[in-house]
Amino acid sequence: MKPIPRISTRGYYDLSSGATLKNNSYYTYPKNDFKKLNNSQEITIMIHGLRNDNAGAIAKVVLAKKQLRKLGYAHPVIGYSYDSNTTGAHLIKHAKRSLAVGQKIAIKNGKNLGKFIEDFKTTSPKTKIRLMGHSLGSQVILSTLEYLAKKKQNIGIVEAAYFFGASITEDVPSSKKYGTIIQSIVNSKIVNHYAPKDEVLLWANKEKYVKGPLGLNGAIGKPVKKYCQKSVKPKNHRFASYAQVLNSYP
């Protein structure tokens, strides 16, 4: 099997505390595949959620690519792999702490992915970049948009973003802070696929680990114009289930 092209920050953050271990921006693998992406009409970057090691990250890209091909999307689909397999994430008693560490790492990764987008657009300015994020991957996307919003030349730099089972809060699309960022950095749209019966988000909400996840009941307030949402019925919280119910892209 050919290696899956991916941008990675694995080993850059401490899995038990979220502390920064390396100040590099990111690395790409395999290098030559990234050179081939230059001058593509567009690319989609898939960003996984919590409890994914490198193999898990690769599996999510394979799933995304398979579903997008089924829907007639013929452009390159690559992965973004980060330290989300935080210590104790699989144990209920450590769930809150490991989620907090995961969120901290996801927030920090905004700078890493943002830097990749800036660098890539420098070498391939006409390529449209779409971002897909599952669960905690929505936080990586939000922090990426926040990082990109610091520079005027980044207006409209991200073509679109797609959330699945998003763990960011339901007030984001209508908030003053993030609304402005979404409107300026995202060129066409942000699509939120939310699932009122998602068992993981129901639990996270009930335990107050995430207060009002955007992926559970959609947005509150008056969201910005570029935001839209679709109610979906995946079998469970896993990305495989969300991919199955995705019926149109982009």
UniProtKB/TrEMBL annotation:
Which UniProt keywords are given for this protein, alphabetically ordered? Membrane, Transmembrane, Transmembrane helix
Q: Provide the leader sequence positions.
A: none
UniProt xrefs under Gene3D superfamilies: alpha/beta hydrolase (3.40.50.1820)
Q: What is its main location?
A: membrane
Lipoprotein listed as a keyword: no
Subcellular compartments: Membrane
Q: Which SUPFAM superfamilies match?
A: alpha/beta-Hydrolases
PANTHER family noted in UniProt: TRANSMEMBRANE AND COILED-COIL DOMAIN-CONTAINING PROTEIN 4, TRANSMEMBRANE AND COILED-COIL DOMAIN-CONTAINING PROTEIN 4 TMCO4
Name this protein carries in UniProt: DUF726 domain-containing protein
